[in-house]
């Protein structure tokens, strides 16, 4: 049998493992599922005869090398910064490798070695990055194959709560890593190009510069800019495009409300707050407010954030129980961002019966035969339950499909790469439709190009 080593059995691996086990008999596969928690790995095997669970400590070099040496191909579902040791071992033992994470500089340095050994190191093959690359390149290539010239590309994606599970004023719950949500947009200004002009949004303004999106049957959404929209400009072959913008989707009103935390300083992760372990939620809020001999914390918050008496922003803060004197943070040496994450987890953790939702939206502006045109492409995916979430499905299934295509010799281009070639994206996007990941394309009037460039 052909052995697939899966390193990491967390939530994102659920749909990945389920898919490969379903294919295991026909494809002659045996899955070795390795995790620091043997119990978690065993749970994910579901007692399937073609799966073996092992305890695997990625920092145990002998254990790691032994597991990789026995495999035919390796899937790493570890946190992004831990892939590199696995990748180096894969070069040594001549094993191809698949991950859902962004290509790091260290991973890119292995490109020559991977090509020399005819190995495929497929990265960014999850949701975002992943499905976004594939669904975008499919249409971009179709436009170019017709002789069209790309003028505009905008891409948006968001992990949200499904409408039937949307039960709070923020219209949001954590469907992925909460820490990433709290730290979103930090580390430098968001940068993109719009109508041929470079634009920059500093973090302090990021959540007040949004645009609206309409998705049929699901209503209106908003999107704020990702940190670096220009990262894939050359990768997608869009160096001459007038507009390139990538953003994160939320329900309307979320960004304005989130900006309250930014303005207060609660998303800062650069310093530790004294005595955070014994701090109450109310004291945490008051830490960011000026002293006043008579004004309450509530009054000071209203004044500093300019919240009117009838503003729903106030209700959103109250809903989080931020002014509670009895709830204690309970985290030693915590940063403001870590404390905020703890508080939000009280209200935004998905309940057992909750379902999540993925929304992806692309806009393609192009010129063909002297006419400017636009295509909008939209995808909505709803999770089944708390195991087979929409996030687990859209991250895990492309990883699994790419792994099988590599094993079966259908993907052959060696090296460190992204899923932007037809040999990768055409079969995967087609198969994803069988699992409910379907893009609906619609011709739209092109509004993005201003030929006289009056505005900049």
Automatic annotation (TrEMBL):
Coiled coil spans: none
GO cellular component entries: cytoplasm
Pfam families referenced in this protein's UniProt entry, alphabetically: Sacchrp_dh_C, Sacchrp_dh_NADP
Entry-linked InterPro entries: AASS, NAD(P)-bd_dom_sf, Sacchrp_dh-like_C, Sacchrp_dh_NADP-bd
Keyword Ion transport belongs to the record: no
Keywords recorded for this protein, A-Z: Oxidoreductase
SUPFAM superfamilies in UniProt: Glyceraldehyde-3-phosphate dehydrogenase-like, C-terminal domain, NAD(P)-binding Rossmann-fold domains
Biological-process GO terms, alphabetical: lysine biosynthetic process via aminoadipic acid
Stretches assigned to the Saccharopine dehydrogenase-like C-terminal domain: 126-437
GO molecular function, one term: saccharopine dehydrogenase activity
Domain Saccharopine dehydrogenase NADP binding, first and last residues per copy: 4-121
PANTHER family per UniProt: ALPHA-AMINOADIPIC SEMIALDEHYDE SYNTHASE, MITOCHONDRIAL, SACCHAROPINE DEHYDROGENASE
Protein name: Saccharopine dehydrogenase, NADP-dependent
Species for this entry: Flavobacterium urumqiense
Classification of source organism: Bacteria, Pseudomonadati, Bacteroidota, Flavobacteriia, Flavobacteriales
